[in-house]
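Page 37, continued from 36.
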């Protein structure tokens, strides 16, 4: 339980959902974690609980759509922990609309919190990751790969993130930096709400997952992030890891 001992991680969207599961798995493996989120109450509460349990976390309230706040966040992590080994770009906000109804506001929300946030975090973090030969873990989506209906803004941002992840892998591999992407299907709070509103469609989605269930945030998704953040995955870079129960098979 110490695969991430002495490592420092940033996890965006770390106060809830998949991000919280990643933070839980990281601290269990000995990492010190900066929980980055816009939800102050939830983020401070989570950080306090982890610290009371003997882990070392720091909550940093950050609007990830603001490049200046992203730079400040990375600087605060370095100032507090003295290093950065792992960057997890998990947070993302978007709307669901038919393609012809998408507005500039919708597109801006998804790109600012998804692609641009990931881009700026990577830019500010990479000089520090070069010093530690660290890891970048970004997040994609099967909905983007398949082009699911009403996912226009989300798909655009997620596939752009996948593109720059590969570029970073190629440009920074010589510095010992690994950059990979996780594409999950997970039973998050958002999925729980969506299931309540669309029980029939939820059942249909589950039937199309070979393993016949949504992934568990703590036991199915978090451990994948631990693997990609650890020395166990140091010969893997530029890859899309499908943590989706077999829904999409890449080759």
């Amino acid at each position: 339980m110490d695969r991430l001992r002495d490592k420092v991680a940033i996890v965006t969207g770390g106060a809830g959902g998949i991000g919280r599961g990643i933070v839980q798995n990281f601290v269990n493996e000995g990492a010190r974690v900066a929980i980055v989120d816009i939800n102050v109450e939830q983020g401070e509460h989570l950080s306090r609980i982890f610290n009371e349990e003997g882990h070392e976390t720091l909550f940093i309230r950050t609007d990830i759509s603001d490049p200046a706040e992203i730079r400040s966040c990375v600087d605060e992590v370095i100032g507090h922990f003295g290093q950065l080994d792992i960057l997890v770009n998990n947070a993302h906000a978007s709307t669901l609309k038919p393609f012809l109804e998408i507005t500039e506001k919708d597109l801006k929300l998804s790109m600012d919190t998804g692609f641009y946030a990931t881009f700026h975090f990577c830019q500010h973090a990479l000089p520090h990751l070069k010093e530690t030969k660290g890891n970048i873990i970004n997040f994609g989506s099967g909905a983007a790969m398949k082009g699911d209906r009403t996912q226009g803004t989300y798909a655009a941002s997620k596939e752009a993130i996948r593109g720059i992840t590969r570029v970073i892998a190629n440009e920074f591999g010589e510095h010992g930096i690994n950059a990979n992407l996780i594409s999950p299907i997970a039973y998050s709070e958002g999925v729980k709400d969506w299931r309540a509103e669309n029980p029939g469609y939820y059942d249909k989605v589950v039937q199309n997952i070979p393993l016949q269930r949504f992934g568990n945030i703590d036991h199915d998704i978090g451990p994948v992030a631990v693997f990609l953040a650890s020395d166990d995955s140091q010969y893997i870079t530029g890859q899309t890891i499908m943590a989706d129960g077999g829904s999409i098979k890449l080759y």
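Residues 104-132 form the longest helix (29 residues). Flag for discussion at group meeting. Strands lie at 8-12, 32-37, 57-61, 86-89, 135-139, 178-184, 240-243.
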